[in-house]
Amino acid sequence: MSRAAVFSEVRAELGEGPVWDVDGQRLVWVDIDGQLVHVTDGDGGATRSYATGAPVGAAALHRGGDLLLALGAGFARLSLDSGEVRPLVAAPGVDAAIARMNDGEVDPAGRYWAGTKAYDDRPGGGKLFRLDAGGRVETVLDSVTNSNGLVWSRDGGTLFYIDTPTRTIARYPFEMAGGTLGERAVHVDTHGLSGWPDGMTIDADGNLWVAFWGGWCVRCFSGEDGALLEEVAMPVEQCSSVQFGGRDLRTLFVTSAATGLDEQQLAAQPDAGRVHVVDVGVEGLPTRAATV
Question: Looking at the annotation, which residues are catalytic?
Answer without folding.
Answer: 198
